[in-house]
Design goal:
Blueprint: H1 3-18, H2 28-42, H3 46-53, H4 66-79, H5 83-96, H6 103-116, H7 120-128, H8 136-148, H9 153-162, H10 167-178, H11 187-197, E1 218-224, H12 228-233, H13 241-260, E2 266-272, H14 277-284, E3 294-296, H15 301-314, E4 317-319, H16 326-331, E5 335-336, H17 342-356, E6 361-366, H18 370-385, E7 389-395, H19 402-409, E8 431-435, H20 439-450, E9 457-461, H21 463-467, H22 472-477, E10 480-483, H23 493-506, H24 512-531, E11 566-570, E12 573-576
Parallel strand pairs: 1-2, 1-3, 3-4, 4-5, 6-7, 6-8, 8-9, 9-10
Antiparallel strand pairs: 10-11, 11-12
Helix pairs in contact: 1-6, 2-3, 3-4, 4-5, 5-6, 6-7, 7-8, 9-10, 10-11, 13-24, 14-15, 17-18, 19-20
């Protein structure tokens, strides 16, 4: 028997049992009619019962059965299939007989009827009216039954707004938020509910599981767009060669970790996502996926969203080996991002400028992309809060790079620099920050500065160096500092050793994708080996973690890397300007 039927029968039973017996002194006609009506009701002859109760509803001094008759009249309507008429009568009883000794039964019926109509706000309001002497255990059961009927996020939001102190509502509200896809979840509200009502943050997946799970072998799913079937019929060069390079790096790291001990630490399970979200759905529906301890990939947004949802629901860590998109890590505490976000890079650059520059004047140019503007705004805001002055703050696209020359030097001709006409006087500013990866933009800044008789430091991004737009000598000759995320120094001793081993194993020279795959797999594998499946709970994860090929990582106890090395090229070898003193700068 369902809980709904049990509630209804309980209400009817309680009322029949508790109805007082007739008093001997009362008028015989009221008493006899009332007994007759109750007998009809017990025999489930609701039409006759209703007709007999009806004359008894009218309140008068010589009629002690008005409230009871009204109540049974409402029940007869309900059993005859007229719940709206029953509701109307119960509402009249609640208004006229608010002090009646059995009024709580009326409130329960009203709550039940409004629940049937899915008017949950009114339903909860009537339960809330129950007398303080009413059995609180029963009251909480009714409330629990009610909120469990609600699956709508909007209704739970409204219910919480009307009853902001009810923990039962807050818990159900948190559950309905949790039931949404991680892309649409209101994480801020979820965290607020957890804090206010002291809910379990692990249960509601705001923080990862604190369970310590140590294994001899960790199973790692590698989900990448290999497009194997397409490659078999396509004679053109592989457009996704970088995927294979990335996977070979992952393979090499797994082999290295497996060779450290006597057992097999890492077991790779490889899947081809084909850059297709429907194919990816099929992959995560494979029962073996729930046995995974880590997922690497996918690379593209839609398949990545599918796997992130799976990761979140099944509490399995995953990492995007190439991403710096903080939206992934913000929505899923099990999703790790090895690259620092644009915001983190801007923050670290700002802090470095503040700590290293005595000349507090500078220029900021930014590109037309939204992220360029975000980074430029962040740097400007932080610098100005530290009493720096940004003398020019300007958007520049590839079509108006002459504005850069005009702002810095007061002229648009590069090879005829007139020192007497410089718009920015020598040594009047200390730095120029360029938030753009467009070649014409940053090359114009470098050209404008290269002939000046001062030492303005240019801050940019490592993409300038990797793109090959500028001659390497420019980076050696000029004071150019490049912030980076996941940068691996091709000239480091570690990279040279890796290159030899990679060449021996695959008969190919590794590239940045091979190195990135190796670095991510080795990082994750080493953390699992030392701290278990949920390595993020370890103390090591709250501070700097040295890399094998790169500079390292600092997740600060979260799930995205915040480490942003600021590099300069010295005799074709990159050095780090902002590495803390307790980290090995010389090695890198």
């Amino acid at each position: 028997m369902g809980i709904k039927n049990r509630i209804m029968k309980r209400l009817i039973f309680l009322f029949i049992v508790l109805t007082p017996l007739l008093s001997k002194g009362q008028e015989i006609d009221f008493g006899q009619e009332y007994l007759k009506a109750k007998a009809f009701f017990k025999e489930e002859r609701y039409g006759l019962a209703k007709d007999t109760f009806k004359p008894l509803i009218q309140a008068s001094e010589d009629n002690p059965y008005s409230a009871y008759s009204s109540y049974y009249f409402a029940l007869c309507n309900y059993h005859q299939g007229f719940p709206h008429l029953a509701q109307d009568m119960f509402l009249q009883i609640a208004q006229i007989y608010s002090d009646w000794e059995k009024i709580d039964e009326v409130y329960l019926w009203l709550s039940y009827l409004y629940t049937e109509k899915q008017d949950f706000i009114k339903a909860y309001s009537w339960i809330d009216k129950l007398d303080k002497n009413f059995d609180q255990g029963v009251k909480e059961k009714y409330k629990y039954y009610l909120v469990r009927q609600i699956n709508s996020l909007e209704i739970m939001e409204e219910l919480h707004r009307n009853f902001p102190e009810e923990k039962l509502i807050a818990e159900r509200y948190a559950e309905t938020i949790l039931a949404q896809s991680i892309i649409t979840q209101d994480r801020e509200k979820l965290e607020e509910l957890i804090e206010l009502f002291q809910l379990d943050p692990v249960k509601y997946r705001v923080i990862p599981s604190k369970e310590r799970i140590i294994k001899d072998t960790y199973h790692v799913a590698v989900i990448l767009p290999f497009l194997v079937e397409k490659l078999a019929t396509d004679t053109r060069p592989k457009v996704n060669q970088f995927v294979f390079d990335l996977y070979r790096g992952i393979q090499m790291a797994a082999d290295s970790l497996n060779n450290i001990g006597l057992g097999r630490l890492i077991e790779l399970h490889v899947f081809d996502s084909k850059r297709d979200s429907s194919v990816t759905v099929g992959i995560v529906n494979n029962p073996i996926m729930k046995e995974m301890d880590l997922i690497i990939g996918p690379l593209f947004p839609k398949p990545c969203g599918v796997v992130s949802q799976f990761s979140y629901e099944n509490q399995i860590n995953m990492i995007h080996p190439l991403s710096s998109n903080k939206e992934y890590s913000d929505t899923n505490p099990y999703f790790f991002i090895p690259g620092a976000s644009g915001y983190d890079m801007a923050m670290e650059l700002s802090n470095y400028i503040v700590s290293s520059h005595k000349n507090k004047k500078g220029i900021i140019f930014y590109g037309t992309d939204e992220e360029d503007k975000l980074k430029a705004d962040t740097v400007k805001k932080i610098l100005e809060a530290e009493s720096f002055k940004v003398v020019h703050f300007r958007e520049v696209g590839v079509e108006n790079t002459k504005d850069i020359l005009r702002v810095i030097n007061g002229q648009t001709v590069i090879n005829k620099l007139d020192l007497d006409r410089l718009a920015i006087r020598p040594d009047s500013i200390g730095f120029i920050y360029v938030a753009s990866n467009k070649g014409p933009v940053y090359s114009s800044v470098i050209s404008a500065v290269s002939g000046r008789p001062d030492s303005i430091v240019i801050f940019g991004n490592i993409n300038w160096y990797e793109s090959g737009v500028l001659d390497v000598e420019a980076f050696n000759r000029l004071p150019i500092a490049l912030n980076s995320s996941q940068f691996i120094n091709p000239g480091s001793p570690e990279m040279k050793v890796f290159g030899k081993k990679f060449l021996l194993k695959f008969n190919e020279v590794p590239n940045k994708y091979s190195a990135a795959g190796f670095e991510v797999m080795y990082l994750m594998g080493d953390l699992m080996a030392n701290h278990g499946k949920y390595f993020q709970n370890s103390e090591q994860f709250t501070s700097f973690i040295p890399g094998i090929l790169g500079y390292g990582f600092n997740f600060k106890g979260g799930n995205r890397n915040h480490l942003v090395p600021i590099l300069y090229l010295d005799n074709n070898y990159f050095k780090v300007l902002n590495m803390p003193v307790d980290q090995d700068n010389e090695k890198r």
